[in-house]
C-alpha cells in the first residue's frame, strides 16, 4: 500500500470507482477511532484526521493488538501526531488500499490501546477474527499488565513474609543467646556468691578461732590471777605487771587484751 502524511491534503483519486474514506482520530477528546471499523476496496484512499491530544495510527497483527507488526512485513505507522488545543489545521495521514482480502488491524500505542483505541479494515465480522474480538484482546492486554502487577505484588508479599520469618528467627536466636548469656552470668554470680560465702565462713572461722584463743587466754589469765604471781596461760611480756595481785591492775590488763582482739 502507499501512504503519506499531509496536512489537510486531499489524496489523489486512483480510479473513478475509488472512495475517499475519512477516519477521525480522537474526535471529541475520546480515546477512539470513528468509525472504529470500515470496509474498503482496492484503490480506496483512507485518511486519518488527528483531532486532538497526541495519537498514532500503528499497524499490528490480529494476534497482538497493541504491538507494532514486524512480520511478514513491518507494520505501517503514522507516528505520534500532537495537536495543540488551539490548532487551526489538523494533521492527516493517508494510504491507498492495494489489497481488499487481507484484514488490516491498527491501534494507538500504550494505554490508549488498552483503553480500546483500535481500528480495523475489512475484518470479517462473522469470523473469529472480528473487530469486536480484536478490541477485546486489546483491552485484555491491559489486564495482562495488571496481572503482572498483581504477580509482582505477590512476590512482594512473599518477600515480606520471608523477611518476617527471618526476623523472627533472628529474634529467637537473639533470645537464645541472651538466655545463654543470662545463664553464664547466673553461674558466675553463683560462683562469686559461693566464694563470698566461703570467704565469710573463713573469716567467721578465723574470728571464731581467734575468739577461742582469746577466751582461753583470758581463762588462763584469770587462773593466773587467782593463783597469785606468775600466771600460766599468758605470756608475760609485760613482766612484773602480771605478778601484781591488785584487782585493779588485773582489770586493766583484761580490758587491754580485749581491745587488741577487737
Ligand atoms: C464494525 O464492527 C461491528 C461490531 O463487530 C459490526 O457490527 C459492523 O458491521 C462493523 N462495520 C463494518 C463497516 O465493518
Ligand atoms: C507524543 O507521545 C509520544 C509517546 O508518548 C511522546 O514521545 C511525544 O513526545 C509526545 N509528543 C508531544 C508533543 O507531547
Ligand atoms: C497555542 O497555544 C500555545 C499556548 O498554550 C501557544 O504557545 C501557541 O503559540 C499557540 N498556537 C497558536 C497557533 O496560536
Ligand atoms: C492480498 O493478500 C493476500 C494475503 O497476503 C494474498 O494472498 C493476495 O494475493 C493479495 N491480493 C492482492 C490483490 O494483492
Ligand atoms: C616470765 O616470768 C618468769 C617468772 O617470773 C621468769 O622466770 C621468766 O624469765 C619470765 N619470762 C620472760 C620472757 O620475761
Ligand atoms: Cu492515542
UniProtKB/TrEMBL annotation:
<dbReference type="InterPro" id="IPR008972">
    <property type="entry name" value="Cupredoxin"/>
</dbReference>
<dbReference type="InterPro" id="IPR052953">
    <property type="entry name" value="Ser-rich/MCO-related"/>
</dbReference>
<protein>
    <submittedName>
        <fullName>Cupredoxin</fullName>
    </submittedName>
</protein>
<feature type="signal peptide">
    <location>
        <begin position="1"/>
        <end position="18"/>
    </location>
</feature>
<keyword id="KW-0732">Signal</keyword>
Amino acid at each position: 500500500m502507499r501512504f503519506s502524511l499531509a496536512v489537510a491534503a486531499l489524496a489523489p483519486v486512483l480510479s473513478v470507482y475509488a472512495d475517499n474514506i475519512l477516519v477521525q482520530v480522537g474526535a471529541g477528546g475520546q480515546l477512539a477511532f470513528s468509525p472504529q471499523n470500515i470496509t474498503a476496496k482496492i484503490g480506496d484512499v483512507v485518511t486519518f484526521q488527528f483531532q486532538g491530544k497526541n495519537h498514532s495510527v500503528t499497524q499490528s497483527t490480529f494476534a497482538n493488538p497493541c504491538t507494532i507488526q514486524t512480520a511478514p512485513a513491518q507494520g505501517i505507522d503514522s507516528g505520534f501526531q500532537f495537536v495543540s488545543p488551539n490548532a487551526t489545521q489538523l494533521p492527516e495521514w493517508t494510504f491507498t488500499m492495494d489489497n481488499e482480502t487481507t484484514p488490516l488491524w491498527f491501534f494507538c500505542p500504550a494505554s490508549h490501546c488498552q483503553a480500546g483505541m483500535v481500528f480495523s479494515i475489512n475484518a470479517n465480522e462473522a469470523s473469529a477474527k472480528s473487530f469486536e474480538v480484536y478490541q477485546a484482546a486489546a483491552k485484555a492486554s491491559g489486564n495482562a499488565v495488571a496481572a503482572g502487577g498483581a504477580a509482582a505484588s505477590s512476590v512482594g508479599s512473599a518477600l515480606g513474609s520471608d523477611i518476617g520469618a527471618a526476623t523472627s528467627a533472628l529474634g529467637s536466636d537473639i533470645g537464645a543467646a541472651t538466655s545463654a548469656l543470662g545463664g553464664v552470668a547466673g553461674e558466675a554470680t553463683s560462683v562469686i556468691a559461693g566464694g563470698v560465702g566461703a570467704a565469710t565462713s573463713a573469716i567467721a572461722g578465723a574470728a571464731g578461732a581467734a575468739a577461742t584463743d582469746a577466751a582461753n587466754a583470758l581463762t588462763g589469765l584469770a587462773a593466773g590471777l587467782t593463783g597469785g604471781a606468775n600466771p600460766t596461760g599468758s605470756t608475760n611480756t609485760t613482766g612484773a605487771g602480771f605478778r601484781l595481785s591488785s584487782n585493779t591492775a588485773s582489770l586493766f590488763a583484761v580490758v587491754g587484751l580485749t581491745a587488741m582482739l577487737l
